[in-house]
Amino acid sequence: MTLDVNAIRRLFPGLARTGDDGRPLVLADAPGGSQVPESVIEAMANYLRTSNTNTHGAFPTSHETDDLIEEARRAGADLTGADPDEIVFGPNATTLLLALSRSFGRTLGPGDEIVVTMLDHDANVRPWVLAAEDAGATVKWVDVHEDDVTLDLDSLDAALSPRTKLVAFTLASNAVGTIPPAAAIAARAHATGALVAVDGVHMAQHRALDVRAIGADILACSPYKFFGPHLGMLAVRRELLGTWTPYKLRPAPDTVPARWETGTQNHEGLAGMVAAVEYLADLGRANGATSGETRREAVIAAFDAIRDHERALARRFLEGIATLPQVRLWGIGETDRIGERTPTFAIRVGDQHPEKTAIDLGGRGIHVWDGHYYAITIMERLGLLDTGGAARVGFCHYHTADEVDRVLEALGPP
Known about the structure:
Layout: H1 5-9, E1 26-27, H2 38-50, H3 60-80, E2 87-90, H4 93-105, E3 113-117, H5 126-135, E4 138-142, E5 144-145, E6 150-151, H6 153-159, E7 164-170, H7 182-191, E8 195-199, H8 211-214, E9 218-221, E10 232-236, H9 238-243, H10 267-285, H11 295-321, E11 327-330, E12 344-349, H12 354-363, E13 366-367, E14 369-371, H13 376-381, E15 390-394, H14 401-411
Parallel strand pairs: 1-13, 3-4, 3-7, 7-8, 8-9
Antiparallel strand pairs: 2-10, 5-6, 9-10, 11-12, 12-15, 14-15
Helix pairs in contact: 2-10, 3-10, 3-11, 4-5, 10-11, 11-14
């Protein structure tokens, strides 16, 4: 089914903001964080109005907070394909991965190896590298093909060995949009006996996550990338949550998964996260999911429709920049390979510094990022880091073809 983008946009108050020319802003900064629907804003406000208190108290508002946390775990499970008792919340994915990697590091020793990739955001690199360094283990790197910035699977095979204990890779690059063949990579890692840790932060905005189908042991994502508030979330295989030792205070809970959550959680944020998953489910129900299907099935239906809409946007953008010789793209540029990427594009305009590109576009009501966006290693690998990285244009399901055209017009000759 075709998304009713105009109806969708009316649900997002941030999209109504206008620029100096009176036209709506083109918020093509979605890879750094999406806009949120009114339902998310209202859910957070309603929690603060009616139920704002801490957990495990002997009174109704505390019971409501306890119930909210359990519902948030169910919503997280419906988003990721995990079980509710495999969902862990925290302030952001980076903090959660740093904490989890510290516990993983206790299982490592000299002679053990971990594998990370040059394509990843540093949040799925540095935590594992630090754990290896602390344990005296070895770090191996998976390279990319420079022409299309896809993972070099021969490099992966060369990095794997019987000593590999963990392989970390991204489900989609937040820098260039590449979508690696996740299930195939996980299968190769598991064949050596290694664990698999995937970064789903960028992917969660664009495609349905399925930790079981991928074969991942650890999956990280962030609700603020899939139309919710600023939070972090992990889906971690139950066995690991139950056997690894968390770094926590006493007498903090010692039950899975609460034993992995430190301090008081962002309860209003959890309310917003539940509302974000409900938004996606409602989108799925408007695009093919039936009333008898589960929320998980409705979320999958939503992402099926999102995928088709975003492919059309990506094709339009790629066809457009192909007519602009001054614009260079890093990543997959062929329109017949759109299924291998998200609508996130790393570009440079001539010899212009990426920050200047972002400033110029901002002056025309178009918001894009510039720099390395914490995808530091790939920017180093492409020779871009020391000269400003790249300008990053990112679309998602609430963007229109007209907005793509506005960006292309602004990137074109004066």
